[in-house]
## 1
Amino acid sequence: MFCYIKEWPNKMASLITADGIVLCTCQNTDEAQQIWRDWKQQHLKPTTSAATETEIEIQSYSPTVTDWLKTVVAGFYARTEKKVVNG
């Protein structure tokens, strides 16, 4: 079974299967890695090469252009709302 860890902007992390199913969401990537290690110990035989070779990929959060644009637009609307309320 292939999984990866996706880190979110708030530093929480989700353990996700290769086909996109979220197995769990944790407080951080360290906790998600520990859950993955525990799962491997319980489900993969230590003598198999899959147990020793299977490492998990961590996809750190990196803002996209869309995230940046959302922040800019939200800031613009926040400023215009303040002007209307104060005006």
Note: The chain is about 50% helix and 20% strand.
## 2
Amino acid sequence: MAREEKDVESPPTSSLTDWNGPNDPDNPHNWPMWMRIYHATTPGLFGFAVTFGTSVYTPAVADIMQDFQIGRTTAIVGLTVYTLGLGFGPIISAPLSEKHGRKIVYLLSSPIFMLFTLGAGFSKNLASLIICRFLAGLTGSPALAVGAGTNADLFLPRQRAIVTSMFLMAPFLGPALGPIIGGFAAQYKGWRWTQWCMLFITVAVYIFGLPMRETYKPIILKRRAKKLGISPPQSNHPGASAVKSSLVQNFLRPIHMLFTEPVVFFLSLYTAFAFAVLFLFFAAFPFVFQRPPYAFTISQTGLTFLGIGLGVLIAAITGVIIDIKIYQPQHRKAIAGGDMHAHPEHRLYNAMIGSFGIPIGLFWFGWAADKGAHWAVLVVAAVPFAWGNLCLFTSAALYTVDVYGPLNGSSAIAANGIFRYTLGGVFPLFTVQMYQALGVGWATSLLGFLSVAMLPIPFVFYKFGPAIRKRSQYPTAM
């Protein structure tokens, strides 16, 4: 009898190492749909708040030039360093989320981000502004790095396309809406109010995110084991080994993959270029619209970014439609044929159609502006560009993770992020000089020709992807 009582009261060892079966209520995959949607939406809102901070700064450049008595390029450095912080911050935040969980990273990094944003707003000289902006970007970036992991915690691979399309709106919709709000803030309240706007949005998102639960499997199991009185296993990489492992996974491996893996290099190059052109528009739009024949005010120039916002929304809808109409039938066909998943190349339809939108939008905008066309024609030209940009990036992210799996896929996405935000921070520094030297039409056309040269990349991977994957130095998941 005593033996039976002991068997009944002993907690199952499986609760420590894995879920207690497919219906384990602690598994985020089994949470109610409304709860999973909430936990997927919150990282997207954190990502929006952080990326909003890139472009909200740009309408204030003229005010900052006057306040600190500096040139335009020097003033734009405040955008560049913030963007670089977003690119390199995940090197720090990703290992923290793996050791302590997702929730604590969101809830600790956000207040630090707000403190540095507050410091930027109160800056009395250029040095303090640049330092605070860089540190704000660095400490705000976990929302972008950890968000993808949260979505993986919540949804199965076949369900992630729709969630990914919605989540990836954040790093594109934030920069699109930043100049709109920042334009009115800078024109009527001064440049410091662009930083206060960042604070207001982040505080609202932070309050919304407070009820979040932990979604990371190892942390959930560890806490459950502690609750049941089971001693958790010791880490395989204690002390300095853990630091070394994190450094390899979050910096050295991404850099190695960037220069040795064709999938990572070419998709990162293409998406980084398209993303950098988006950031280039933060300087190009004021250059075009604030001069004759348009002579827009700062706030009116900000409103022209509505075209980019509309393109981003259409791209998210496109991603959902393609997943429902094309990818899911391919997935069901693969399952019926005895495979675990559809081939990763079926993730590339979005990129293949979106790749045409980027050059169309660039040539349209460049020559319409050069000929002095009505301002609405230029605003509409931004729609296909933004649509193609997000379609491309959504496909690239999904394809990369399908090819390399969760671990190496995260390193590949990190490589993409470093490349993307580095180019995004650098491009605005030479925008005005390029437009002055070449003229609006030819400067934008140069970007259009480069995008045409990269257009075949997703088509090449669609056709030759299986052969390219076989030669990978890293284990491929599919």
Note: Confidence is low (pLDDT under 50) at residues 1-14.
